[in-house]
Amino acid sequence: MAAPRAEHELHTRRYSRNLGVALTLVCFVFIVFGLTYVKITNGGLNQGFDHVVRPELVPLEEGN
Amino acid sequence: MTDATQQIGSYENEAQFGDYVALLKPRVMSLVVFTAAVGVFVAPVYVHPFVAFVAILFIALGGGASGALNMWYDHDIDAVMKRTSRRPVPAGRVSKGEALTIGMWLSFIAVVMLGLASNWVAAGILAFTIFFYAVIYTIWLKRWTPQNIVIGGAAGAFPPMIGWAVATGGVSVESILMFVIIFMWTPPHFWALALFMNEDYSKAGVPMLTVTHGRRVTRKHILAYAALVAPLAIYAAFTSIGGWIYLVAALYLNAKFVYGAWQLWQRDETAAEADGYSAEKRYFRFSLTYLFASFGALLVQALWVQGFGMGAW
Fold first, then answer.
1. Residue B246's pLDDT is what?
2. Residues of B with CB below 8 A from A17's CB?
């Protein structure tokens, strides 16, 4: 059977393609992660009301 | 031939990752990346560097997606033209269906990600750009009118406008001017190419101006568009994105662009054929330099203003 050598070439070709897709997906994950991080850290105050009133979230006029 | 050899034969022409990258027209993407980046950085609004990077990446991906859709639809004429016959679809490495699927999915991903990264005005203009290039230009105009390049050129002119919208969330005189510069530059650029690649377009039956109206008329049109783009490009120097750096560059580049067009207009076909269309080839190459240098000057001007706190005017 001559299949093993031919399969080896086939696998090499598939390897480059699969590696490319894998790297693209990893990059995409990092992009979404990075974007989320930047949006959260540059978005100002991120606290919300959670049943308990937090003084730092009360507008200044009311708080003073 | 056994089943095994038949199977091996069919894999020989299998696409590699590079073929899928080629489907996105990376050379066109480089122009999109550059002009979109200029649009972002000359805008008077600060954009976080990572957001700017992601936005430019997805604008480029949107451009690439429309390139894939173009290759899907144009597979028949790409196979006929020497310049495009080795593209993945006509070469048989990527199927038509794959090109269509990749083009559609990447368009969707690019628009949604741009919207999430920046704003929906920018995403909307990107969606319209993809539609314009794939449907209006590729499917409708390219095979129908010799003005295909003129109207289709709008698709390539949108990236700086999208970049500007990423930063400002809107459209303004400055972004329209950047659009107009590329829009008016496209016809002379492609018609200069068509002057020495006429045979390719004739064979494919694409109604380029050189095929339908001849080279004489094409030369006149090149001069007309070069003369029209020059004052607009110089006028951009007197807007908020301009300044003396850009003005000096624009004066020099536009004078050379118009003078080159005038030289092409004066040439007859005998002279052009005698020297192997050397002036036309030179003008085509210069037209690329013209665009990169014009937008490069806008970028340098913006960096000068931001970096040294110098007012534009």
1. 95
2. 15-17, 20
